[in-house]
Design goal:
By secondary structure, the chain is an alpha+beta fold. Among the domains are: 33 residues, no CATH class; 116 residues, no CATH class; 88 residues, Sandwich (Immunoglobulin-like); 372 residues, Beta Barrel (Porin). Helices cover 19% and strands 38% of the residues. It has a 17-stranded mixed β-sheet. Strands 1, 2, 4, 5, 6, 9, 15, 17 and 18 form a nine-stranded mixed β-sheet that branches. A hairpin with a 5-residue loop joins strand 42 and strand 43. Helix 11 crosses helix 14, helix 13 packs across helix 14 and helix 15 packs across helix 16. Bound molecules: zinc ion.
Length: 1014
């Protein structure tokens, strides 16, 4: 459920003008009299590690600090999220392809029950939310007045789900007890914030205190929120910590297999009860494992010099990376304290757990970390999760609605930690094939930078301020985490570390143990820095407007270097300009935010100037940032030639090349080179040129594509102009040897993605308008054609349903003999997943209707080529060279049996039904439930005019078996063909009826290596 939003206020203003003043006054007074509720818990819980069940007794004191009287409390009963596939969690996971809750066994699911609430000792009625079993309403028999206090008590029993589902769970006898007890939802100035548990969309909880007693077999090691109060357990942990050097040595000597799920020692028959207390936290989590090795350390805080105890708990299997975990926990605690404010608690713990909700998960004072692939990865995850003690724990924003205030601000500190501690790190390079292919010198910051720029370069980014549940899973990471980190790092660079740190310390002091909103963060930053930050809080956070600054003009004289920069983007942010001498950065200066052109004077006499010299301004495209004194073209970036593929570096024109081998029936073998700039991040101008020597044609065949991308503010996500050139041999007729018997096409095109970038939508729409000049040369015969087509595609994608509707109009004209053809068609496909578990099988129903509204043939040579085909286009009917054919002009043999998946779509090779007027068909295909899933059945039915002279209509049918390899290759074997269609074959040979299809060009032009094959 969504909390009430500010838009309610805005709506009111629109219609009730007279209330504007009052509303503003009201808003002001709420801002000044901040309040929050308080919840103080006492919980005792017993772990039954045979049945994986918790038996608990909870009592919490609820203090109403709000100005409202409350008639009920919303309670979160999170374990019920694991009940089945119908919960919000179940649905979110199903949509993401995780099916445990929908199809898993009951034994892996979880729930909470045995609830029996009393309020101040009086039994009290509660009801479950109609939609969400993990939300309940506790109806108070006596309303709770402002300033009033009640005590709510209940027993509870939790069936612990499998740890493979989300955050609460167990793997064998390794327990992750998180979001596990009945808990009031947050009540704030926006009202109740009750929300079902989700994997994507985290926390919002009330502050208060916890007093938790855990009873479990004696040999469990527990990591938990709070300060341990039980002396015998303190002794137990200290003893464990003392013996850790031997434990680690033994673990490293032992050859470790895959992480065990069953290698648990027997539980001690004796039990222990251990007690933890903590103030000023909003949650309590605990983790228990009998195998843990325990490390203990200490870190001195930078401001107060207070000492905090650090703990690391891990299984022997992971000792290799975890042996230095205390260093990571201490350094994380130190740097976050230094940059934001001292850690206010006594203990900071990281435990090793099998977590399926990401690399790690934060809880107050304690974080759980998933398996890491290297020591560096482990360090970053630990630091990130420890860092959440600030951005989540201490500064408790509403993560479901403003996730960036936690994850994004935390990412900023994580990026800063890595580049401060490891300025020379090559984390991204190490990830991309260990630095091969010229992805070199790419660091941890680049990882965030590239992920944001890659997704925004495709026009698929969303605003930072997007509800957590409305993010696509890619943008949840690339935007909410990465882009927020980047834009606040941009702010930090602009303000300078000193001012920025002062602002963050103030924010921390003012809002610690509270619920800051975006406007609260903005107010502190603007007041303390004295800057108007609307470019950040307006454009960069609220919208997908892109930053782009351009270097306009450079003038050097005795006084220095005068640089004119132009804001050619959609955000009026500050611009950094750097002056270089002999390749070294000697001076930088910031240009204050403005629209249009600005000039700035640098003292040095530069021989090179760069906008965004550090690369730390999150510009999507950076190809217009440079000026060099050398050379005629000052703004042309120096060329860098590299093999295969790599990253597009700032200040260089990276050109990649790779040898190419290709083949078809006429060119035979082709050997050549692909030259392109399709590295990452993407460039505004993209090109791919592939000239190849054709051994069959003794000529140069190949392709060339070039395009230019725009990222408009509105209506279109992406707009791309370009031209595609193709030339290949198209016959192996002996008469047309050498450089003869070939085609050449040049096709300018415009491609656009329609829609806005606001919310994740199941709908996507594209438009492609393409024109073409085509020359076919066969000796002295030269056929010249010109034409084009416009195509609109609508797609609707849900986990079990897909709809595609395509509208298309074509026009083509023979320039010599003035043959002309015009055609329009509609195509609709509905795909339905009829087996929904892991096996996953689909069936599809397609309808097609197309007609030629212009068919003017004087030469008649194009009659078949310009006709509609029942079976999909053969090579000669592929007028606009839209896909790859092994033998484009073959009329006999297996290669002639290739068709495109278009027009009538019959799984047939017959020319029957080919006509100049119209075709209407329906096609059915279903994947069979057998393993492997490549087999299917098909059926096609169609009608078409019998002749141009009468109104008579002919029909055709076929039924058969198909084999599909992914979405690319299809092979179809007819079992029944309607009589006329069958009779139309010149041969009785069955093999002539087998049709095959290839679908290579399923992506946009420009980044489609598959096009190389044509
Ligand atoms: Zn995080």
């Amino acid at each position: 459920m969504l909390p009430v939003k500010h838009s309610t206020f805005q709506e009111m203003n629109k219609y009730i003008l007279s209330l504007i003043l009052l509303t503003v006054v009201a808003l002001r007074s709420t801002a000044q009299s901040y309040w929050q509720q308080e919840v103080n818990y006492t919980i005792s819980v017993k772990l039954d590690d045979k049945n994986h069940v918790l038996h608990g007794q909870e009592s919490f004191e609820y203090i109403n600090n709000s100005p409202e009287t409350l008639d009920f409390l919303y309670l979160h009963l999170w374990p019920n999220a694991y009940r089945d596939g119908k919960t919000a969690l179940g649905k979110q996971q199903y949509a993401g392809g995780e099916q445990e809750l929908t199809f898993g066994a009951d034994s892996i699911k979880g729930s909470i029950d045995s609830l029996n609430f009393t309020v101040n000792g009086v039994p009290t009625y509660f009801e479950y939310d109609a939609e969400n079993p993990d939300i309940a309403k506790l109806v108070l028999s006596t309303p709770l007045i402002p300033g009033g206090k009640i005590t709510v008590s209940t027993p509870f029993k939790v069936k612990i789900p499998s740890g493979e589902i989300s955050r609460l769970g167990h793997i064998g006898q390794s327990y992750q007890i998180t979001q596990w007890y009945p808990k009031p939802a947050v009540y704030d100035k926006n009202g109740w914030n009750q929300m079902p548990y989700l994997n994507q969309g985290e926390f919002y909880s009330e502050y208060g205190s916890f007093d938790v007693s855990i009873t479990l077999p004696k040999n469990y090691v527990v990591g938990a929120t709070g300060d341990l109060q039980t002396q015998s357990e303190i002794d137990f942990l200290n003893k464990k910590a003392n013996q850790s050097p031997e434990d680690i040595k033994a673990a490293l000597l032992k050859k470790q297999g895959p992480r065990g799920k069953t290698d648990f020692p027997d539980s001690d028959p004796e039990w222990k009860t251990i007690r933890y207390t903590q103030k000023n936290v909003h949650d309590f989590a605990w983790f228990a494992d009998k195998r843990y090795i325990v490390l203990k350390g200490e870190v001195e805080l930078p401001q107060t010099k207070r000492k905090v105890t650090s703990w690391a708990m891990f299984v022997p299997h992971n000792a290799r990376y975890w042996q230095k975990a205390i260093e990571y926990i201490n350094d994380g605690t130190y740097y976050y304290s230094k940059w934001n404010g001292d850690y206010p608690y006594n203990n900071v713990t990281a435990v090793d757990g099998t977590i399926s909700a990401g690399g790690g998960m934060e809880y107050p004072n304690v974080t759980v970390i998933g398996n890491a692939g290297s020591a560096m990865e482990l360090e970053i995850v630990i630091v990130h999760e420890v860092g959440h003690n600030w951005f989540y724990g201490i500064l408790g924003s509403n993560e479901r609605v403003h996730g960036w205030m936690d994850e994004g601000m935390n990412t900023l500190n994580e990026l800063r930690y890595v580049y401060t501690k490891y300025p020379e790190n090559t984390n991204l390079s190490d990830m991309v094939l260990e630095g091969r292919f010229h992805f070199d010198h790419l660091d941890h910051y680049d990882m965030a930078d590239f992920s944001y720029r890659a997704i925004s370069g495709l026009g698929e980014d969303q605003p930072i301020e997007t509800h957590s549940a409305d993010f696509t899973s890619i943008n949840y990471g690339a935007v909410m985490y990465s882009k927020t980190g980047l834009v606040f790092n941009y702010l930090k660079q602009y303000l300078g570390d000193e001012t920025f740190d002062r602002c963050m310390h103030l924010y921390f002091e003012k809002w610690k143990f509270k619920h800051p909103q975006p406007e609260d963060l903005r107010a502190v930053l603007e007041q303390e820095s004295g800057k108007d930050l609307s470019w950040l809080f307006g454009d960069l956070i609220q919208t997908t407007n892109h930053v782009d600054y351009k270097l306009k003009k450079v003038k050097t004289d005795a006084n220095g270097t005068t640089v004119t920069v132009k804001n050619s983007g959609q955000v009026n942010g500050p611009i950094e300009v750097g002056a270089y001498q002999k390749g070294k950065l000697v001076e930088t200066v910031w240009v204050e935010p403005s629209e249009g052109k600005s000039s700035v004077v640098l003292k040095s006499q530069a021989d090179e100037v760069r906008v965004n010299p550090s690369g730390r301004i999150p510009e999507v495209f950076r190809d217009n940032n440079n000026w060099h004194q050398k050379g005629l073209f000052g703004k042309v970036e120096p060329l860098k030639l590299e093999g295969i593929i790599g990253d597009n570096e700032q200040g260089k024109s990276n050109v990649f090349w790779m040898p190419m081998i290709a083949a078809n029936q006429y060119d035979k073998f082709m050997l050549g080179v692909a030259v392109h700039n399709l590295g990452i991040p993407f460039n505004r101008v993209q090109y791919l040129v592939v000239p190849m020597y054709s051994f069959g044609g003794k000529r140069v065949s190949g392709i060339a594509d070039i395009s230019y991308s725009f990222l408009p503010k509105k209506s279109l996500k992406l707009s791309k102009f370009g031209v595609a050139v193709r030339s290949f041999k198209e016959t192996d007729n002996e008469a047309f040897k050498g450089n003869d018997g070939y085609y050449f096409t040049a096709s300018p095109f415009w491609f656009a993605k329609l829609g806005n970038r606001k919310e994740a939508s199941p709908i996507s729409q594209t438009v492609l308008v393409q024109t073409m000049y085509r020359l076919d040369v066969f000796g002295r015969t030269k056929i010249e054609q010109a034409g084009g087509f416009a195509k609109y595609d609508f797609n609707y994608n849900k986990p079990d349903h897909e709809v595609n509707i395509g509208l298309r109009s074509d026009f083509i004209s023979n320039l010599k003999n003035s043959d002309q053809m015009g055609r329009s068609s509609i195509e609709a496909t509905y795909r339905f997943r009829y087996i929904r578990n892991k096996k996953s099988r689909w069936m599809e129903l397609r309808g097609y209707a197309g007609g030629n509204w212009l068919f003017d043939l004087s030469g008649a040579s194009n009659a078949a080529n310009y006709s509609l085909s029942l079976s999909g286009a053969n090579g000669s009917q592929d007028l606009f060279i839209e896909d790859y054919y092994f033998g484009r002009t073959e009329t006999q043999g297996f290669l002639s049996q290739q068709r495109l998946e278009n027009m009538g779509g019959f799984k047939s090779t017959s020319d029957y039904g080919t006509n100049s007027q119209w075709v209407a068909t329906t096609n059915f295909y279903a994947q069979l439930p057998f393993v492997p899933g490549i087999f299917g059945v098909f059926a096609d039915a169609g009608i078409f005019p019998a002749s141009t002279l009468t109104n008579e209509i002919n029909t055709a049918f076929d039924v058969g078996l198909g084999i599909r390899l992914g979405k690319v290759v299809g092979l179809y074997f007819p079992l029944y063909i309607s009589k006329d269609m069958n009779d139309a074959y010149s041969s009785a040979n069955y093999t002539t009826r087998i049709r095959f299809t290839l679908r290579m060009s399923f992506t946009n032009r420009g980044i489609n290596f598959a096009n190389l094959l044509n």
